[in-house]
Every structure is written in structure tokens, then in C-alpha cells.
Amino acid sequence: MLLKIVLGFLCGIRALAADNNTAQEGPLPLLLVSFDGFRADYLQRFPMPNLNLLYSQGVLVEQLTNVFITKTFPNHYSLVTGLYAESHGILASNMYDPVSHKYFHTYNDTDPMWWSQARPLWITAQDSGYKTAAMMWPGSDVTIGNRTATHFLPYDSTMTFQQRLGNITNWMLGNKKEPGVMFAALYWEEPDRTGHIFGPDNTTAMAKALKEVDENIGLLMSELKQNGLWGRVNVLVTSDHGMAQCSAERLIQLDDCLDPENYTLVDLTPVAALIPRKDPELVFERLNKCHKHMTAYLKKAIPDRLHYRNNERIQPIILIADEGWTIVQRGNKLPRLGDHGYDNSLPSMHPFLAAVGPSFRQGYRTSSLQSVDIYPLMCHLLSVPPQPNNGTMNGARCLLADESCWDVPLVVGLVVCVLLVLSFITLVFRLMSHRRSLGPRPFQRLQIDDDDDDDPLLE
Ligand SMILES: *[C@@H]1O[C@H](CO)[C@@H](O)[C@H](O)[C@H]1NC(C)=O
Ligand SMILES: *[C@@H]1O[C@H](CO)[C@@H](O)[C@H](O)[C@H]1NC(C)=O
Ligand SMILES: *[C@@H]1O[C@H](CO)[C@@H](O)[C@H](O)[C@H]1NC(C)=O
Ligand SMILES: *[C@@H]1O[C@H](CO)[C@@H](O)[C@H](O)[C@H]1NC(C)=O
Ligand SMILES: *[C@@H]1O[C@H](CO)[C@@H](O)[C@H](O)[C@H]1NC(C)=O
Ligand SMILES: *[C@@H]1O[C@H](CO)[C@@H](O)[C@H](O)[C@H]1NC(C)=O
Ligand SMILES: *[C@@H]1O[C@H](CO)[C@@H](O)[C@H](O)[C@H]1NC(C)=O
Ligand SMILES: [Zn+2]
């Protein structure tokens, strides 16, 4: 703690002294990169030399508190809107809309009605006159509010990271006909894919997948350097959610509790969404007592902290499995060795955030941030007026080079520093007044006399 305070004191001096480098003419381009399913503690468990190099020159947020449910589409849309799932309307990988009677699946996602409750940054940034790009980010090929990003490519799992990156850098550079984009979002599906197939506890499989992810981060840095973009753009590297280890020993079978005739299933695991056919209370009672590792909620009783209630696409009953448990209807077959979607307060569900570029501090590290805070941060970096959102700039301010930041150790360090200076001044004053009253004399005697003189003052 003391060390931290001393460091805070030193950093304070540095931060106060070295703010000049951020004097820029207008905002810099911003690149947002997501590596799907990058659980925060992979950073400690596996060597990531390139990612390490990236955040050592910038900032690292060790854990992001993401939004419920901790699935890919809800969280990717939260990153670019700053909204909880209940407010942006992309609530799960499988949805039913009771107003239009339509069904949503991640492989059939381009109907604009699903996305139109919010506006992603690649669209609002165009209102500030910027060109934008979205490479396979969920929603990037959907016409939202009649628009798409200036450049985008529809999802294609066969396109390599290098190809996606090559197109992104070309769009950022621009050409004679078209200026470079100011905001670009880039999506990559690892380490999520490997995490699902082998489970996050399989060190062999995860080490291999994360080595490739780290090589892609290396590629990103060298590509930006080659094109003269490195040091002239801000880069955010983050993810949507983590991953939990599942097991065939941890299955919850709904058919054991309730006849499938009694409900319509919209989504299954680890957060089930269902519509009772008749007698909702009775259906709820059955499900509520079904399994000790599954919690049932009537829609109106879903806890506030999940921000997962105020939307017509949330079904009358939801079931939430405990970490590492899988909900199935029947049978003993485990669908995946790794899964996510669980309660967003679980550390295993949290991703991380690394950022580098002229607007960020260097070598700064902090333990946590809300993922909805990333949207107002990006709007700030781009000087784009944010849409109404659920984030704040308070959390992210400390990451920035040109913001004063009320870091607690830093404040304590500054207070200690001020007290030291004040005591020093007091001491000097007292020595000087002694000198004046007693006149010049040998230094050694001064101390002896001092003690005598001081005693009455102490009483
Ligand atoms: C501060 O920044 C300005 C503009 O970039 C530059 O001209 C000036 O030399 C800098 N001053 C110091 C002391 O670094
Ligand atoms: C895709 O979803 C739309 C509604 O959003 C629906 O009309 C259409 O039938 C679906 N297509 C497939 C192949 O499921
Ligand atoms: C969307 O675009 C179409 C044609 O491009 C136009 O007819 C329609 O009015 C637009 N809708 C909105 C809401 O701007
Ligand atoms: C851009 O993407 C296309 C595929 O759509 C690919 O063939 C091409 O190589 C990519 N461009 C670069 C510069 O990587
Ligand atoms: C872990 O993953 C490897 C593939 O990388 C696989 O060969 C091995 O069987 C897996 N181990 C377990 C215990 O699942
Ligand atoms: C469940 O379904 C069965 C068969 O359709 C029916 O007899 C029973 O009343 C239903 N129970 C509830 C709680 O809906
Ligand atoms: C989130 O933001 C939206 C848009 O401003 C707002 O309607 C909603 O009430 C907010 N949610 C919470 C929990 O504050
Ligand atoms: Zn994901």
C-alpha cells in the first residue's frame, strides 16, 4: 500500500508534468478489435508476448464487467451502443418477438427490426461526417436506421484474420477518392471456438488457440506499423465474454420436471427462455423446484442488477443455470465442453480490455471497468456526441493521457506530499526566526538551545 502511495506520488508528478504530448489537431482514428470469448484470466494463464507488448505501451483493464446475458451478440452490441441488452434489444442468440411473431437466430440475423432499438457507433459516427467500417462485427451487415457502415463485409468464417485486417487497414488509410475511416470495428472468432469445443480447462487446446490469437495481435501491430498508422491511431483490443468449463456430470434435464407440452422453448442454455402454454404459475412452480443448480424467474422478478427485464423480447419465464451447468431437455448428451451466457457477476464470464495509442496513458493498469463504459469512451475519443447509453466516462477517464484522474493512491500520495512540503516550510520558518532572535552562532549549539526553547511551546 505504502509502495502504491509512493508510486502514486511519483506518477502524480509525472502526470502533472507531462501532458503536452496529447496536444492534437482533432480526434484520431479508432480501431476496435474483438477476439471472441477471451476470458480475462487467459492473460495470466498463457504467455501472450504480443498482447503484453501492446498494453505495456498503453493501458490494461484486467476484467471487464460485461452485460447479461454473457453471449456474443448481446455483448458485441453493448460494446458499440453502451446499452444493456434490455435497452438495445439483442437479448440472446435465439429470440422470439411477440409483437411481430418473428424468430431470431444468429445465422438469420439481418432483419433490421431486431437491431433498430439502438444505433451502433459505426452509424452515429457518420452523423459527425466520418467514414466508418465494420468487419464481421455482429450487426455490421444489417441495415440499421436505413444505413450500414461505409465499408463492411458480411460474416464469412473462411476469411482469415490477415484478410480481414488487410481490408481494415486499407479502409483506414483511404485513397484518392475516399478519406480513411475514423472508426473501424474488427471481429475474430477465436478463442471462443476452441473454448466451446475443448473447454477452457484444456490447457493444451487453449494454449494452441491463444498462441494463434497472440500471433494475430502481432500481425495487427506490424500491419499498422508498416502502413504508418501505429502511433497515429487509437487501438482497443477487447472481447465479449469469457468461458466456463462444462461437464456431462453437470446436466439439468427439463423433461424430468415438466412435460415439454407445457411450454414453448425459445432459448435453452445456460439461460433458458420459455413461454408457458397455460397456467404460468404452475409451470413456474415446477421449474422453480426443478434443480438446485438452476434458478427460475418470472419475468417481473428478474433481479434489477441483471438489467434484463424491460423488453418485450424477454419471455415470461427465464431459467439461469449455475456456472458450468448445462440445461438440456432430455438425454445425457453434453452439447459443448465450454459455454458462456451465465451470470455476468462471475469472473469466468469477464473479458479484458487493452488499449494503446496517443490518447492513452502508458503502462497504466487497472482492475476493472464496466463494458458499457467503452462506448462513451470511444465517443469521447472521436468527439462524437454519444446516443443515450448506460455507461459513464468516470470509469474510463483514468485510462486517458490528457485527463486528470482521481486515482485514490495518487490522491493520497499528493496529500502526503503537500503535508511534507508544509512541515518543511514550517521547520524552515522556525529555524529562521531562531536565527533572527538569537543571531548567528555555531550550528551545533543551535540544536541544544532549540530543545530548551521549544519545551514551553509544546505545552
Ligand atoms: C508541446 O506541444 C507542442 C505541439 O505539439 C510543441 O510544439 C511543443 O514544442 C511542445 N512543448 C514541449 C515542452 O514539449
Ligand atoms: C429468418 O428470419 C425472418 C424473420 O426475422 C423470417 O421471416 C425468415 O423466415 C427466417 N429465415 C429462415 C431461413 O429461418
Ligand atoms: C429508407 O430508404 C428507402 C429507400 O432507400 C426510403 O424509401 C425510406 O424512406 C427510408 N426510410 C427512412 C426511415 O429513412
Ligand atoms: C479483403 O478481403 C477479400 C475477401 O473479401 C480478400 O480477397 C482480400 O485479400 C482482402 N484484402 C486484403 C488487402 O487483405
Ligand atoms: C485437450 O485438447 C486436445 C486437443 O488440443 C485433445 O487432443 C485432448 O484430448 C483434450 N484433452 C481433454 C482432457 O479433453
Ligand atoms: C402439462 O401438459 C399436460 C399434457 O398436455 C397437461 O395435462 C397438463 O395440464 C399441463 N400442465 C400444466 C401445468 O400446464
Ligand atoms: C439505459 O439507458 C437507456 C437509454 O438512455 C435508458 O432508457 C435506460 O433506462 C437505462 N437503463 C438503466 C438501468 O439505467
Ligand atoms: Zn462470443
Automatic annotation (TrEMBL):
The chain crosses the membrane at residues 408-431. GO terms for biological process: blood coagulation. GO terms for cellular component: plasma membrane. Its cofactor is Zn(2+). It catalyses: P(1),P(3)-bis(5'-adenosyl) triphosphate + H2O = AMP + ADP + 2 H(+). Keywords: Blood coagulation, Cell membrane, Disulfide bond, Glycoprotein, Hemostasis, Hydrolase, Membrane, Metal-binding, Signal, Transmembrane, Transmembrane helix, Zinc. Its EC number is 3.6.1.29. GO terms for molecular function: bis(5'-adenosyl)-triphosphatase activity; metal ion binding. It is found in: Cell membrane. It is a single-pass type I membrane protein. The keyword Disulfide bond applies. The keyword Glycoprotein applies. Residues 1-18 form the signal peptide. Belongs to the nucleotide pyrophosphatase/phosphodiesterase family. Hydrolyzes extracellular Ap3A into AMP and ADP, and Ap4A into AMP and ATP. Ap3A and Ap4A are diadenosine polyphosphates thought to induce proliferation of vascular smooth muscle cells. Acts as a procoagulant, mediating platelet aggregation at the site of nascent thrombus via release of ADP from Ap3A and activation of ADP receptors. This is bis(5'-adenosyl)-triphosphatase. It comes from Channa argus.
